[in-house]
Amino acid sequence: MTVTFDGLSVGDSIPAGSYPLTRSDLVRYAGASGDFNPIHWNQRVATEVGLPDVIAHGMLTMATAARAVTDWVGDPAAVIEYSVRFTRPVVVPDDGVGALVEVTGVIGALDPDARTARVDLTAKAAGVTVLGKARVVVQL
């Protein structure tokens, strides 16, 4: 039996999103979050600890991926639950372009009684999945 609610069905896709991240974004995020770890802004330090280059903050990556859902549902306050596993870092080169986080989402579950939908996200950067088991529950 297929669950449908509000014109949605399990397996439906939400609109994909592509979100650029630049070194400037990392600096602004560091200031807002208080996370000034140099792996997020200093290439020398990042490579000394074995990273390929400066990487985006995990929480910034997570928030960026959630934009696909909040853009789709139209209200960031509709998110009532969000969880991910960090699988790979988002490398942000200092080339004037940065990184592109590409996000797709599929309705994984619907609860008509609670008026919620679970959206299962796939987030990739440079063709590599950067978040695993990314699931967002939204109030419809």
Summarize the structure.
This protein has helices spanning 23-33, 43-48, 58-73, and strands at 4-5, 8-9, 13-21, 79-86, 99-111, 116-125, 128-139.
Structure description:
The protein has 140 residues and is an alpha+beta fold. The protein has one domain: Hotdog Thioesterase (Thiol Ester Dehydrase, Chain A, Roll), CATH 3.10.129.10. Helix content is 24%, strand content 40%. The chain is built from three helices and seven strands. The protein has helices at residues 23-33, 43-48, 58-73; strands at residues 4-5, 8-9, 13-21, 79-86, 99-111, 116-125, 128-139. The strands form two sheets. A five-stranded antiparallel β-sheet has the order 3-5-6-7-4. Strands 1-2 form a two-stranded antiparallel ribbon. Strand 6 (116-125) and strand 7 (128-139) form a beta hairpin.
